[in-house]
Design brief:
Blueprint lengths: L8 E5 L6 H11 L7 E10 L5 E5 L7 E5 L6 H17 L4 E6 L18 H9 L5 E5 L13 E4 L2 H11 L8 E5 L5 H10 L5 E3 L1 E5 L3 E5 L2 H4 L3 E9 L3 H12 L5 E8 L6 H4 L4 E5 L14 H6 E4 L2 H13 L14
Length: 337
């Protein structure tokens, strides 16, 4: 622990945004650990008539350590503009440190130049964010390469929170017959983390290939999944297309019950197709359900979709960062706990 503690730490959030409940939960978790150190501070966004974003922060932040809980429910471009305006405002208001807490880090999928005349958007966004922010915290960054673009960056792995939740709430899922599966090699490390945490479960890694452009094919070895229940894990559920193809393949290979976990659930093509194929889906609260969707949730969502809160692990990281403590316990190999 550091020899001196900060005098003031602020949980900065938009009271009218989609992350307000997450921000409140983070504050409720972190404030009792050192009463009086943390304060909530509202950042009120609005619009000028021609569409430009405006902002006002409610309380003085001078010499304070500011943790901005960004709203991952915004469209990506809106999220980026708001984050940069907020960071600049905090720095210009003499905050001692500005730390962006991005429940989901947009643009991290675009971390390389895979063909001519395309941007490395992850690089562009990292450069913009670091103009005014001192550090970034996120949950399950999509690309491990993306964190190399930042001077100070921590991606909190979700598997600890999720496996503790499943152990407490759904022990019936965690049978000896359960296999942890990833739809592609990119998620292999994540799946292995789940497997270790759940008692050295077998892990099956899918082979994802492109067929005629955008269409995907996901293949699993039948010897790894046949007759087994499956927990299929991924970081982002966008349209759900990759997961649907993976589930079709698992059923063709005679898998048993199929459960899905996705850290960030966007469901941009709706819920029903995916939910109708599985026994249950678990998602994190980095995205408030439903994401950018008008109207209520269908009955099938209430029956099969469960939301797991990451407020406690984010609060752990914020507290450790504020007092100069170590985040090692949030990252270490489960076997060494």
């Amino acid at each position: 622990m550091a020899t001196s503690l900060p005098n003031r730490c602020f949980i900065v959030y938009d009271p009218n945004g989609g992350a307000k409940d997450l921000a409140q939960s983070i504050y409720d978790s972190v404030e009792p650990r050192m009463p009086g150190l943390f304060e909530l501070n509202e950042a009120r966004f609005g619009k000028f008539r021609m569409g430009e974003t405006k902002l006002e922060i409610e309380n003085n932040v001078r010499r304070g350590h500011c943790f901005y809980i960004a709203d991952s429910n915004d469209k990506p471009n809106e999220w980026l503009v708001k984050s940069n305006l907020l960071n600049h405002t905090l720095e210009n208001s003499s905050a001692k440190e500005v730390i962006d807490v991005f429940p989901h880090l947009f643009y991290s999928r675009q971390d390389r130049k895979d063909k001519a005349r395309v941007p490395m958007s992850a690089r562009v966004v990292a450069d913009m964010i670091q103009l005014y922010a001192d550090k970034v915290l996120t949950v399950d960054v999509h690309s491990y390469q993306a964190q190399m673009l930042y001077k100070r960056f921590d991606s909190l792995p979700s598997f600890r929170t999720v496996t503790e939740y499943l152990t407490e709430k759904h022990p019936e899922i965690l049978t000896d017959n359960l296999v942890i599966a990833s739809p592609d090699a990119g998620g292999g490390k994540r799946a292995e983390g789940f497997g270790r945490r759940l008692g050295d479960k077998n892990v099956a890694i899918g082979h994802k290939s492109r067929v005629k452009g955008d269409a995907e094919k996901v293949e699993f070895a039948e010897s790894q999944v046949s007759g087994c229940d499956i927990l299929l894990v991924d970081d982002i559920i966008d349209s759900g297309g990759t997961l649907i193809k993976a589930i079709d393949e698992l059923k063709d290979k005679n898998a048993g019950k199929i459960y899905v976990y996705g850290t960030h659930g966007f469901f941009t093509k709706g819920y029903d197709d995916l939910l109708g194929m599985v026994d249950k889906i678990f998602v994190g609260d980095t995205i408030t359900q439903p994401y950018q969707c008008e109207g209520g949730l269908s009955k099938i969502v209430d029956e099969k979709l469960e939301v797991i809160s990451f407020a406690p692990i984010i609060a752990d990281a914020i507290y450790a960062t504020a007092i100069g403590g170590s985040l090692n316990s949030l990252f270490g190999d489960p076997k060494k706990d």
